[in-house]
Structure prediction request, 724 residues.
Amino acid sequence: MSFTFGYSPFLLAACILAAGALTVWSYRRTVPPLSGWRKAVPATLRFVALTTILFLLAQPVLRRVDEIERNPILAVLVDNSESLQVTTKRDGTSDNESPSLDARSSIRSALQSVESLDGAVRVFAFDRDVRPIGTSPNATDSLRLDGARTNLAAAIDAARTELQGENLACIALLSDGQYNAGRNPLYTAERSPVPIHTVTLGDTTGARDVQVRRVTTNDIAYVGTELPVQAAIRATQAAGEQVTVRLSRDGNVLDNTTVTLPSGTSERTVQLSFTPENAGLQSLTVSVSSIEGEATERNNAASKTVRVLESKRRVLLLAGAPSPDVGALRRILSRDTDTELTARVVRQDGRYYDGQLPEDLTEFDVLALVGYPSTSVSDGDLRRVADAVSDGTPVVFFMQPTADLGRLSAFSDALPVSLDRARSSSIEALIRPTERGSQHPIMDVENAGTAPWDQLPPLRYNESRWSTSPDARILATIQVRSMELDDPALVIRSRVGQRSAALLASGTWRWTNLPDDLAPARTVWPGVISNLVRWVAARQDTRPVRVQPVQQVFAGSERVEFTGQVYNESQEPISDANISVEITAEDGTEYPLTMEPANNGQYNLDVGVLPEGTYSYSATAVRGNTTVGSDTGEFSVGELTVEYRETRADPVLMRQIAERSGGVALLGPEADRLSEVVQQTEGFKATTFQQEQETELWRTLLFLALILACLAGEWTLRKRFGLV
Prediction:
């Protein structure tokens, strides 16, 4: 115990001496004269009051240090996930016949062994989340082993957080080692300040099983177009067995095939297909028939959701004359599975190759004008195309030497560039993306290498003078020899109701005929064309109410969540609207809900867990008594089989967790040795720490009461003795 002061104690002593001297001087002569105790008592009271005030003004602090002993704590983390129902019990019981007895037995043995430890034991059950349970071995009776996900890293972190500030000496992790959520637990183990001892629950040898490992197909399909579906079937200890693989939707079989399973543990790819007849969100299920004695049938099916559209993107390519660029563009667009191409090339007499100009040009999603219009285009056709563009049809202009630049003014209101001065000459120029342009989705081409644009040959750049509209965006400029110029090469524009783009260079056919040493750059031009068509065809979202699920497909036992936005007619966010959402299941069950406002026109909704199936929803936003707008959509919830994908425990991962954290790895039959392992842990012992307590005495009411009592006592005595 000690005192500290905010000021020098010597100054305090001097002030106390001064207070004593002042008190003596004050009572040296009194009127009327006093003697003996009559003078000494009030003088003493004054001195005590002054001394106390000076003492408190020095801001005294009383410090006390206590030594406290804390017993070591063992945190036991018990896996409560569904995977334990598959990785344990190999005596031929079915899924419904308590296949988890071995896991519970090992857990009970581990808890019984640590009951007698000289320290505290805290037990937590975990799957996707972590929660404390009782420390009694009978606590295993509360484990249902039904967790839909396993997050080992979160469990380890939660134990440290829950016991922060206590003497956590080590962690015991009881699991089969199969995790499917969160980060890799090895990273968490490496940073663990205490050892993690592991007990591997379940069979480590694997079991007889057949399962649908994954289903692969396009996310987008089209009505009337065959959709291939690829399924990976994994078999273990099922050599020579014949199984039937089915593709179904809403219980109706769309395709099936018979497969002979290979030996050992291996995967086999199965090709299935079907032709969608209706548009909308469709949930496809691939299932494989069961085999006798397999570990579980819960992994015999997997689902995939596909959005079926009425038709592909319809692109009308209009070329002013035949050219290598036209041929290259036709090949690229015709190979795009999401594009339905119609091409018309103008002949010298004004007619078209491949047929006449379509009657209704507005039925196309994109107009690709390749050197169009040329001098051969009739005024009537040019007027029809210009009317379609002015009606809002997205348009892309590709510069060609045959283009009649004077007649290009028919599209000047729609294109992102306008002609200032026309010239027929052209120069060789390299195309260089701008800094902002390189980040645009149009320029984002998969598998294009690190610097694909540097590998592309130059194009012919028309020397006409172009000016860009104020709302246009330049994605690429030109480089002539070693000089980079600001002249636009690829320009885009997005306005309400229409998007447009212009490439002001020709000779792109060279980019489709690259030699083998430039093979990584071969995907650049096809990728840019695909992205460009997709971007200009995308409709801008000007809806006042926009409500959508955070993802189109939710796994079983995964919480369904929505986000929403509300805007007024000026596209300004509305934060005080009331959004009601009604979700409807396939069987007609309805879920009426209300979204919660977040901020700045944003709204959130947590629906919770929904049964497997496809759902539709409608949302209506109301502000006061006025309906702002509505929105509709679809989403699906699939069956969760991730916990049943692995039929054996993973002792390797459990051993690595133990080794990286300084712990010991045990197998299930060795669970009763957990107490022995914990007692041998170097840090598992009581620790003594010093707890310091500080009391600021000048804030204590006791001293204020003392000062008031002394001053009141002195005043009373002075009045009683008649002092003046």
Observations:
- The first strand starts at residue 2 and ends at 4.
